[in-house]
Amino acid sequence: MYLTRFFSGLAQAGLFAVAVGWKYQSDESLLVMVILVSQAASNLWLTIPSLSDRDAASVQLCRGALSTSCCTGLTLLILGTLSSSLLFLIGGAWIFVAACAGLMISFWPPTKDDEEEEEVIFQPVNDDDSQEASDNDHFLSWDQHEKDDEEGGYRLLEMDDDDDDDSAHEDEAPTNNESHPSNRIRGTTRLLQLAAPEVFYLYAGCIALLIRLPFSLSIPHFVSTTLSALGHADFHKAQHEILLLFIFGSIDAALDFWCIFLFGYANQRIVRGVRLDLFAKIIRQEVAFFDTHSSGELSSRLSSDCSEMAGDLTWFFRFSVESFVRIVGIVTYLMIRSPTLGACTLCIIPFVAIINKVYGDWLRQNATKVQEALAGANAVAQEAIANIRTVIAFAAEQKEWDRYSHRIDRQFQLNVRQLFMTGVYYMSISTFLINTVVQASLLWIGSLLISQHKLTPEVLLAFMLYQSQLQNETLNLFQSYSSLIKSSGAGDKVFELLDRAPPPPSVNALSVRADESRETDHDEQLENSIQETQKYHVELLGINFCYPSRPNQPVLQNLHLEIPHGKSMALVGCSGCGKTTIINLLQRFYDPTGGSIRIDGMDLKAMDLLQHRRHIGVVTQDPVLFSGTLRDNITYGVRRRVSFEEVQRVARLAHADGFIDRFPDRYETTVGERGVQLSGGQKQRIAIARAILLNPSLLLLDEATSALDAASEQAVQEALEEWWINNRSMTTVIVAHRLRTVQHADCIAFLQDGFVREQGTHDELMKRPNGLYRHMVERAGSNGILPDM
Ligand SMILES: Nc1ncnc2c1ncn2[C@@H]1O[C@H](COP(=O)(O)OP(=O)(O)OP(=O)(O)O)[C@@H](O)[C@H]1O
Ligand SMILES: [Mg+2]
Predict the structure, then answer these.
(1) Beta 594-599 vs 602-603: how paired, if at all?
(2) Is the peptide bond before 505 cis (omega within 30 degrees of 0)?
């Protein structure tokens, strides 16, 4: 801010120097009146921000003042050029460059440390007295997230609510046939539409370009006139021309920043917007989608494809506008100075256009393949890194390296092809056609014209200087087209994902943050309604199910189960009989292919998916923890005010307090990515504490205590039983391989081959002479582990 004011001061000094200079030079009083009035206004603007410090309003005001100074500088420059007044030219350039530099600095983003944000989200709490405050911070963090998300200010993705429209779901096959011209145009149009919300920055960039144009175009002119003046031994004129070149070049340089910054800024906003939309789209897909799409592939779409597709987009706007205007300017200049030589220079353009079209089409097809190959390689790398312990344990480093190298080789080959074609392109267009053929032809024709006294050497020199600019601009223009085509190639996969309408049961459209207003309203409604306790009388009626990725392999067949509200049901059976599948269906990760699941008489499909999931607490065999602290993980998913005492209480219930207290940072101990810094049993206890804290209406325990030793398991079991006794409103489904865990359940279901073979209490089932359950219990080991039948 101080620097901005410093440059503003410099601009002011320039103005007063001009004013004083004018006083002794001429009587263009009207001009000075205009300048002084505009400067007075700018001064006024500058005094206001000094009242307050560094806030957004003062920055805006300073920018306003500096913009006014820029305009003043430009006005002086124009008037200086028209009236050939060197004083006005120098003064104008001074004001313009100083104001531009100040304006530039005002756009330097304030340093916002990401770590600081993280700290707000995971506020450490060691002191009980500060608990209330830290709890507030914890809740502030949710708001913080929402505010951060709002900063985008635009959304490209329209969140459609009609996810239940089945007709829209049959889009699994890629919709883009790259070779089809209409699809290509559609892809390119979609890509251009991405830039629509950024028109302000793009227009501003175009304006900067247009203002800059005469200044940058005039440089070769001054070079030729200087050399011509030197040729005629007119040193005074040469000095004058050099000074003009310096002034115009300085203005050109100051404006160059804006062309780069504004287009680049628009570019960053587009990439950010596409990433946010794509991430929102990915996380609201149905679970089956993730069975067939690897996380590596999806993260590659988010990282590489998004930046690739938007990366060249804004350069398209920049170069298409800049090159077009420059070409028009240069062609006009050349035609005025020598029509014959001008026509010779232009005849190369059609050849460049044709070669560029062919190159652009090829580039697009190759870009799609490159992105696909990169996504494949990323998927392999991510899988290997995520499972590095298994890779090391099996000494499979070489195998994983081979897999990765095979995929990356494919991408390498495609990139080498691209390099080869780029080399051919530059060789034929830039070096041969432009540098060699055109230059030689121009010099040859030019020397002929000079020998016939139809041209002066000065004009030929100007032509040589301008023609290289012209050819560069022509290349830029066509390349901006090829870049756009290439970007749309990289964007194909991104658009495919963005367009994918997830079939039910996908996450409700309102649950993602792509539309802040709806999210906030819905959240409030949800938080209000979530307080109501829901009765979970669960019925599975004639359930048939096969996983979408294996449609011909039935997992559950005509399955009937009933779990009355507040009761517990244990599912036992051999490995692969479908126990976890039932847990998945109850969470509505998948919909059954036949039959229906009813909750308190209501079909699960008709229920609000978010409401339903927020009533559920789940603990799985290998619970997933998130990087962050133990406290963050225990409170994960809880959307109400949680006190530290409550966190401690649930940790005690889950028998997690013992090991937590042994860590020096206690509840603020970080657990590492996916909780790698904890043992399996510790992770399970944190997951149990997390489930208890949610106070769910339906508790799903899928081998929840399998990683605990016998003593810990018994302790956790007793704690859970005690909790159930106090929470008779909770319905529980338990999957376990330990007799002790299942025998106290209100009902036990024995599953085999996707059917329920036996059902009843432990005592009832044990009374059956040839019962499968009884047979299994009798074969249980001394540790009470039920065998796999
Ligand atoms: N995402 C999936 N896609 C396709 N098939 C699956 C998927 N998950 C599980 N299966 C298959 O469904 C069947 C039932 O699996 P499920 O996980 O329900 O068994 P389980 O009874 O929980 O076994 P375990 O006791 O070993 O955990 C298995 O044959 C399994 O191969
Ligand atoms: Mg299982």
Answers:
(1) antiparallel
(2) yes
Angle at 604 between CA 599 and CA 609, to 5 degrees: 115
Tens-place pLDDT, residues 467-525: 778 877 877 887 777 777 777 777 778 888 888 888 877 765 444 433 343 344 445 55
Residue carrying structure tokens 């209409």: 182
Peptide bond into 504 cis (omega under 30): no
Query: Largest Cα–Cα distance of the chain, in whole Å?
Result: 122
The phi and psi torsions of 618 (rounded to 5 degrees) equal -125, 140
CA of 621 to the centre of ligand 2 (A): 8
| pLDDT tens digits for range 233-288 | 888 888 888 988 888 888 888 888 888 888 888 888 888 888 888 888 888 888 88
Length of the chain: 789
Close Cβ partners of 3 (under 8 Å, ≥ 6 residues apart): 102, 105
Residues 764, 771: Cα–Cα separation, whole Å: 10
Residues with CB under 6 A from ligand 1: 291, 547, 549-550, 555, 575-581
Nearest CA to ligand 1 atom 5: 547
Neighbours of ion ligand 2 (CB under 5 A): 580
517 is written with which tokens?
């207003």
Helix (H/G/I), strand (E/B), else coil: 326: helix
Distance 462 CA to ligand 2 centre (A): 79
Tell me what pLDDT residue 545 has.
92
Copy the structure tokens of residue 380: 């392999």
The span from the CA of 84 to the CA of 452, in Å, is: 35
Q: How many CB atoms lie within 10 A of CB 596?
A: 15
Confidence of residue 597 (pLDDT cuts 50, 70, 90): very high
The distance of Cα 786 from the centroid of its chain, to the nearest Å, equals: 48
Reduced to 3 states, what is the DSSP secondary structure of residue 603? strand
Which 8-state DSSP code applies to residue 785?
B
- The pick from 287, 553, 577, 750 for probing ligand 1's pocket by mutation, whose C-beta has the most ligand atoms within 8 angstroms, reads 577
CA-nearest residue, atom 20 of ligand 1: 576
Find, among 705, 520, 709, the residue nearest to 620 by Cα.
705
Which residues have C-beta within 8 Å of that of residue 326, sequence separation ≥ 6? 213, 216, 217, 469, 470, 473
Top-confidence residue, 362 or 724: 362
